[in-house]
């Protein structure tokens, strides 16, 4: 009885926290996304109040260097339209995307609740490498646990972002879905994942993407329990 009461108390007084990995090849826009998220959601009151123009020009004036190691940030998610999700913390991990750093990613899989995989929609030369990276990630042996019978298939939602859609040479969503990525996108979209068009620099699609991800993190709660902070 005490345990029941104390766990109910914890549930009502603490915030749910979900860990989200930001992955993708180097130069995809991972750090730019994280920096933009920080500006948009750093304090509950500033949420979405800064205009798109403001945050985009701040981001553009920052010098974002290639990531070595990791950047993390925790935001208190807040949405005026969807108050159901207002008591949630998201902790983002931006891990380096260079080839030498990618084999470190799997160390984080067991403690993550969701993945944002960023694709540079203009980098056609590396689409094949990007596809293979996504395939390797979604079938990594570290996904196996008692809940999915030790099958090495990803058991958390993956939000795939087709980034840099502001650039004229960006490949559009339909072409991406039917081209090199067809197998991985259809395989993942059959589970709990989605490919969305964004520009993390211009703040296009960030809000919609986060809303989708949060709804899936909450849906997947029984499978991957959030932390309480
Ligand atoms: N035009 C455009 N450039 C972007 C966008 N996102 C990132 N970039 C640029 O792509 C480069 C790599 O971004 P960065 O965030 O460092 O990539 P990371 O290696 O994945 O962390 C930088 O020059 C960014 O300004 C976007 O949505 N549109
Ligand atoms: Mg980076």
TrEMBL record:
Lineage of the species this protein comes from: Eukaryota, Fungi, Dikarya, Ascomycota, Saccharomycotina
Biological source species: [Candida] jaroonii
Superkingdom field: Eukaryota
Protein's name according to its UniProt entry: ADP-ribosylation factor-like protein 3
